[in-house]
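re: that chain from earlier
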Amino acid sequence: MAEGTIFLQMTGVSKHFPGVRALHGITFDVRAGEVHGLVGENGAGKSTLMGVASGSLVATEGEVRIAGEPVQGDPERARDLGLSIVHQEPALMPDLSVAENLYLGLPKKLRPPPSNLNGWARKLLKHWSEDVAIDPRAHVTTLNAEQRFIVEIVKALECEPKVLVLDEPTEHLATEDVERLFERVRRVTERGASVVYISHRIREVQMIADRLTVLRDGEGQGTFDAKELNEDQIVSLIVGGDLDRSFPDKAESGDHPVVLSTSGFSGPGFSNVSLEVRAGEILGLAGISDNGQVEFMRSLAGIYRGAGRVTLAGKDISIRNSQEAKRHGISYLPGDRHREGIFGELSVRENFSIRSSRADVRSGLISSGSERSRTNKAIRQFAVKTPHQETPIGSLSGGNQQKVVLSSVLSAEPRVLLVDEPTQGVDVGARAEIYRILRETARSGVAIIVVSSDAQEVAGLSDNVAIFSRGRVVEVLSGDRVTEDNITSSVLKSTEQRDKHHRSVGAFWKWAAGNSAPLLMVAAAILLLGTVAGIWNPFYVSPRSVTGMMTFAATLALVGYGQQLLMMVGGIDLSVGPLMGLCQVVASFFLLSDAGLGTQLAGWVLLILVALTVGLINWILVDGLRMHPMVATLATFMGVQAISLILRPTPAGMIDGKIMIALGTKIGIVPVTFIIAVLVAIVLEFVLYKRSIGVSMRGLGSRPEAARTAGIRPKLTRLIAYLGCSLFAGIAAITMIAQVGIGDPRAGLSFTLGSIAAIVIGGASLFGGRGSFIGALLGAIFIVQVNSVTVFLGLSQEWQQYLLGALILLSVAIYSKSREKVVQA
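^ sequence. v structure.
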């Protein structure tokens, strides 16, 4: 590659959001073989600029070229041209496995056959480290922050990019992984590619970058040789002047009362911790990542369950959950701001008031005036930069998000404040503000415990520091001994051994968290219920009874497949029941005994076209008009049902008997329609997990923005899902012809809720990204079985609802609890 070749060229790029000018006239280029640092405060426009470069955002003005080719709002094209980006918040799809995320993250030309993803992914992970502790089969939702970031970095590196963008790449990485990252960066530039390195850690940028560009308030402040500027000069360019980066004065020594103390406190990842924190004091918790300090804090916050003695103001207390901790006056500021700290779609006002809503209650109702007044006061007090208190918090910079969350936590007036990584992903200016706020809070008499992976931050902020190693406190530093050197030395010299037994998860819960668990549980329920019913009433297992149940199950399963297809991408279709009735009504005008072959053929074609037309209308309402799927398909429900009633006010139009006989064909006692339903389930299951279209659909339902970044086309994928859902409803209506035999507009109404119940029982998520077509088949069989069992056992119809409701609640509860346990482990 010729020296000086420009791989990324951005000219006059501006980006405007409603009420916010994020970028203005930015010109930026990255040369072959260089590391180009991009620095600036949170909100300066760094991530937005790279979003435009990657195609995930469309520039309001300006031009972007990668390897000389124009890019405008097309992530897949940007990736194909050679740009890979590691986002500050990993763009992974949580309900997909690590292997599947790596697969979707690569350009199509680099993807292997989907049949052996796990072995392929294991090799990729070993390119990062031979002893990497990440199972390629694990769902991303079970990974911790560091593991998710490693997966994201591996995904980007394996694309063999011409331009690699790293957005705050070391925030979640341990020291040894930071060194690995720098080594990989050097390998990228050695082969002639380039790296854009975005970080708030100026020393890191100076260490790794050849050139650096400074952004401030969405405008460029110049591009410089990284060696020409010292740290203070870079900071001055970032903030527009000199910045006092010193920490606030620490607490004066004195006999302050102990507010919180623990004795022999143990929990997941830590054991036998005895510590105390006094009023007005900041206690820092330091140590290498995953050595128990975060778990200790989260147990005090009631998120994990701890065992041992905890006293508050001299009185023993129990902390069984986060609500109990809050009642005791213990408030927690989480370290993973994106997943646990903010409600991204809610406004600044709602994010602030949600933790202290009782303060706004007047006569039993929330006072809007009080809420707005308190929010405005917090915005001024904490210097939050936001256009308005109604601005969605997700559109603010990381530093301003953190200040809103901190102000929200403090508004509850806690006695003890627990702070996890107070300045993670926060720019240098916002850090100083947060340090000041924490120290002023301590001076008001609040006891504060802080966890930070930055030894300099712990030393500068804390009055006392507890060093954690392998789940235990190995040393407590106080007074003049609280220095960065002493903290680092204590961490590195520890020989403590970890007590691991607290982190174990039972084999049942591990199994229950997997994809196969719902299938096996439903299958077991079917066998158990069938055995009991067969013993109670032998006619239950008679050939006629079994054939009838299979016939009804086939119809419910087929419409369930369509519902599962749509729910997989985060949608739902309430119109499938009326659509089945409409298809039946259409058939009753054409599939008549005295109709010719041409008329009957036209009827079959029209039936399918009607189904596809309804699917297209639903897609237009949801994707085109941005209506919520439930609202859109409820409107279609009423419209389709109205058309059916207009065409057939009362049931009429007998279907040709030959057609009904053909549709009722059996092989032995097994209806052909049931065999077809089983085969379709197997094929669809294979496609779902072993073909790219299936993985793409699950990815889109799991996390739409990450899927779009991975090159999945949301509108096209949802169109396929809506058309597929309606098509299956039409096919199910065909199988229903043999059961109804007449044009009845109300024939399919019960299948709407039935199809949803079947797939939920079979393991589907109402939020998308997870499900099974075999599970939908089993769910349909179980529903039909319950309906039949109640008749054979002489039970009232209410028992149908009791049994179905109980299994739905049980299956959802077990799956949710198992995922919770695995995530916490």
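The longest strand covers residues 6-17.
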